[in-house]
Design a protein that fits this description.
The protein contains eleven helices and 17 strands. By secondary structure, it is of the alpha+beta class. The strands form three sheets. The protein has an eight-stranded mixed beta sheet. Helix 2 packs parallel to helix 4, helix 4 crosses helix 7 and helix 7 crosses helix 8. The longest helix has 27 residues.
Length: 404
């Protein structure tokens, strides 16, 4: 089956989600797998190997990961890979393809799992980076191999590994470390150049503005527990910015949802949305609980991108669906008529930058005036207003998004 990863395509499936689905087993069988990627980043490896689906797979089954070192893969990546290797040992084997052929770039991107008696092979254009797995426009195919095809594939794969064994280096190999450091320096310089260019291009270009009020929603205090996958990215943050940061940049034509968050007692961080918002904006599919993931990064009041939040798109039997917001953790719901406001910027398929604006924040009045002008309050219903970044920037120039 052929798929396209494209944040502006209604039928988009991300490479990240396809990999998780392929690794999901329904039978208690001894399985194994392997993945080969030209480039990898700390954020990309975390997305895959810190997800509960892969944790479950690696708890019982071996997996071999091979990454290239010709570009992008850097010191930060190696640190994360060592951490994951040690966490899952002996089931996770990590090798780096290190070749001295300057005229040939190591450039494959594929991953496979032998699960439930079949081999599920994903071959595509996306690398093991946050951009490649989620935001870039990529394409990939999923092939299910059985019987003779499966045996032929395994024989072919083993032949390639055996003939390239001298090029498959350990993470602590001196040449691997040297090349990773070179890539780290290159990307640190590249990020500084990007920032300088951004400062020179501050003027906005006009584009069509779309403002659509969504159906307001009644308050519903029902709470459904949602899983969380945490990330921890050590070492130089600037290296992360150089590649994975690109998955979280803000463009003027991106969709924006402004949503009042209802009171659900001490668990109001599990924000309640109806089906129209869940499917139309967040990209969930009602009644489907496959390995879809909503990714979020909160922007602090000072404009800092917080840690990645990974949420399953949980579909429940009621008419409400929930997205858990880490920014609301440990905060009591405010008293009075003023409600917390969540502002979500859709940067890619099921990927969002968001900010939780509380009534005691200095920016709250600017946001509530904007919301009142376009969608006045009706009783106790929660307002949901859809716009775009350009209009949001024009009406709320002091938001923390613009400090990133």
């Amino acid at each position: 089956m052929f798929y396209i990863q494209d944040g502006r395509f209604s039928g988009s499936l991300t490479t990240h989600e396809a990999i998780l689905t392929a690794a999901t087993s329904t039978q208690n069988m001894l399985d194994y797998g392997a993945g080969v990627f030209a480039f990898a980043t700390s954020g990309g490896t975390s997305l895959i190997f810190e997800d509960q689906v892969i944790r479950d797979f690696l708890s019982n089954n071996p997996f071999t990961l091979i990454v290239g070192i010709d570009d992008i893969t850097n010191t930060n990546t190696l640190n994360k890979l060592r951490e994951l290797r040690d966490l899952y040992q002996p089931n996770l084997e990590v090798k780096v393809f290190c070749d001295n052929d300057s005229g040939s770039l190591f450039h494959p991107k594929f991953i496979w799992f032998k699960v439930d008696g079949e081999l599920r092979l994903i071959v595509g254009s996306g690398n093991l980076t946050e951009k490649g797995l989620r935001r870039n426009k990529e394409a990939f195919t999923i092939n299910n191999l059985t019987n003779d095809e499966l045996n032929d594939f395994e024989e072919y794969w083993n032949l390639w590994v055996s003939q390239n064994n001298d090029k498959l280096r350990d993470l602590d190999d001196e040449e691997v470390i040297r090349r990773a450091a070179r890539n780290a320096t290159r990307f640190a310089r590249g990020r500084r150049l990007e920032l300088e260019l951004e400062m020179e291009e501050e003027e906005d270009t006009p584009c069509e503005v779309r403002n659509e009020p969504l159906i307001t929603e009644p308050v519903n205090d029902e709470v459904i527990p949602i899983e969380v996958v945490d990330t921890d990215t050590p070492f130089v943050p600037e290296i992360l910015d150089a590649e994975d940061y690109g998955a979280w940049t803000i463009e003027d034509n991106l969709e924006v949802l402004i949503a009042e968050i209802p009171n659900s007692g001490n668990r109001w961080k599990q924000a309640n949305f109806n089906r129209a918002v869940f499917e139309g904006f967040f990209g969930g599919i009602a009644g489907v609980n496959e390995e879809r993931r909503i990714l979020l990064r909160n922007v602090s009041i000072t404009g800092i991108l917080e840690e990645l939040e990974v949420r399953p798109t949980v579909s429940v039997r009621s008419q409400n669906y929930r997205v858990e917001l880490a920014a609301a953790s440990g905060i009591e719901y405010p008293e009075g008529d003023n409600r917390p406001i969540g502002i979500f910027i859709k940067v890619a398929t099921r990927s969002f930058i968001y900010s939780l604006i509380m009534p005691d924040h200095d920016i709250y009045n600017e946001v509530i005036v904007y919301l009142n002008n376009y969608q006045p309050r009706v009783g106790i219903r929660m307002r949901r207003y859809l716009t775009d970044v350009e209009d949001l920037r024009e009406n709320c120039p002091n938001l923390n998004f613009w400090l990133i």
